[in-house]
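Loading example: each entry is read as two labelled lines plus one structure line.
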Amino acid sequence: MATDSLTFIFFNAFLANNFVLAMFLGLCPFLGVSGKLNTAVPMGLATSFVMLVSSVCAYFLNEVLVAFNIEYLRLISYIVVIASAVQLVEMTLKKLSPALFRSLGIYLPLITTNCAILGLALFQTFKEYNFMQSLAYALGAGAGFILALLLMAGLRERLDLAKLPSVTQGAALSLILGGLLSLAFMGFAGLGAE
Amino acid sequence: MSLIKQDDRITVDTFLEGIWRENPVFVMMLGMCPVLAVTNSAINALAMGLATAFVLVASSLLVSLFRNLIPSEVRIATYIVIISTFVTIVDYTMQALSQEVYNALGAFIQLIVVNCIILGRAEACASRNKPLKSMVNAAGMGLGFTLALLCLGVVREILGSGSLFGLPLFSEQFQPWVVMVLPPGGFLVLGGWLLFFEWLKTRKQYA
């Protein structure tokens, strides 16, 4: 498969180079919001949506920056675009579903400082993807993020019922679980990681 | 996260807090992405730690100097702009100093912008303290972060490539645990360190 085909880009970001488990982007929500399935799903969806919006914005912004030869402003302008996209999602959610808005709480504004989103914008610029490729990349990354959150939340819900040694409670256990999931995802490298 | 009190005295604790009691990585679990992503060798860990510490101290100084001028409604946006200015400086400096390290760290230098430790310090400490105190506190946090990164980087490099700062440690027979320099190793080693600290804590309680 050609490495610049849309399907390859999608599956590369979704499985083989999963943003959370292979590239370590967006670990804060991965460890913080993955306690329960019913908060993990909306969080994943909100993050993916912001990814899509900011990926599109970042693409056009980069065109402008390159046209005016001011690439050193890239970082600052990307982060401003992302912050506005998060604000947009926040207002939409508040209007459409106040209950969900409350249950996500502090994690919603924190999407701004989720490195998966800035990372996505930066990587698509480094890799010089065109518009459609950027879209496929954003969709794949978003789907991969949701998948990782879901797997983790499912595992942690099960482990709540298990009897564990007192030392392993909390973050240490989540990290080791993350390590095992990451080991499993390494298998997808056989699909042809970039 | 405990808020630092309004008094202006700079104590040893202002500095040490970031290294031990409120270590950003091991205790507060902040800024995890670079912690796991760039610690596959000790030298990368050190470079990343120092870059973050520089941004932390410099942006704390600037936020603290302007703390009475920044309106509270737009403070987060202002902090982000200040931080990303310094990150851009670090990015270009790093590129000029060592292309090799710059390539190894990749986008993670630019991703310092979204490291929650820096924004957290700006919000919790620099925005309500005098410049000198904020800088001392930020330096402690930066050092704590660098030490934590080194803890991971050293273990992962020894196990994963059998070397330390690029110098081989073992004879030819040593079979490196390749998985330690790959992504799962980051999760497992950090998990291991946390287990170790938790075990120390419980042992102290029962002693």
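Strands of chain B lie at 163-164, 167-168.
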